[in-house]
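okkk here we go again. third time trying to get the zinc ion bound version out, last two times i messed up the smiles copy paste (missing a bracket lol). double checked this time i swear
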Amino acid sequence: MEGRTPGLVCGHHHLYSALARGMPAPPEQPTDFLSILEQVWWRLDVALDLEMLHWSAMLGAVEALRCGTTAIIDHHESPNAIEGSLSVIADACAAVGVRVVCAYGVTDRHGADGARRGLAENERFIRAGGRGMVGIHAAFTCGDDTLSQAAGLAQDLGVGVHVHVAEGRVDTFAGERLEPLAADDWLLVHCVHLDRDLPGTIAHNPRSNMNNAVGYARPAARPNPVVLGTDGIGADMLEEFRLAYVAHRADDVSASPDTAWSWLEQGYAFVPEARDDVVVWNYDHADSPWHVAFTPGMRALGVTRGDGEVLLRDGLPTRVDLDEVVAKSAEQARRLFALL
Ligand SMILES: [Zn+2]
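finally!!
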């Protein structure tokens, strides 16, 4: 019983969040999207240093590979460890053999200097030959100057912008503010409360949207190309496909899994080489949307990169030691939790 697919693409990830599982409970119970950011993610990201980030990205990359995901479009923030952070992520993914498109999420949450350093990290990484986009956290945490500087830098570098857009109601004005800047090569993440169409590809993250109770994004109703992302909750893209299908179906009983499957495949527009990777699954019909939609728990047995290198054998990574990655990550998670 074996089926095959190309390598899968995670269209929106946060590798820095791999250590967050089991973190201490926030001081206050979050009651909406903004308080989830304040109580959970913005406490975590300020505590990160480059060593934690290295093992977080190693763990995230190994987990991706074990799910047949050979390419990740990552969005990163570590306000107290900005310089060099994108290289740490890129190096960790390269060590495992997973492709990554990096971006540093620029924001004015940490003042003008924080925004400047975020922009500089995007520029440094991409000018040095790194594969990346210019990241913006979200319009609601940036002034107009920072938004236009990030858009201008992306244009200068010949890359798109990777930005969270109208994820919660707090960012409803994103459409109006980004409309003069957005372009076809932008990656617009979430777009749940977006009040108009913008140019670019939409990254749909069904599990994360449910988890944050922000609502259903209705990506099928948009004219944009759509990719699927996990928003940092692992990189099991067949699982995300199943959730994308069933969320679509919950909204429209005539929905077919072919639509969510087309979102999965749209990731190749960003990382075309992943199509040449071969994933072998423990299930015959791994390339059939109607089969996969109703088959939870499929496992990747092997991954062979387009150039012939075997990256995963019998479900285990070949380039790194799984037990070591798990042990070191657990050690770094303990260090991180002690700071929260
Ligand atoms: Zn995100």
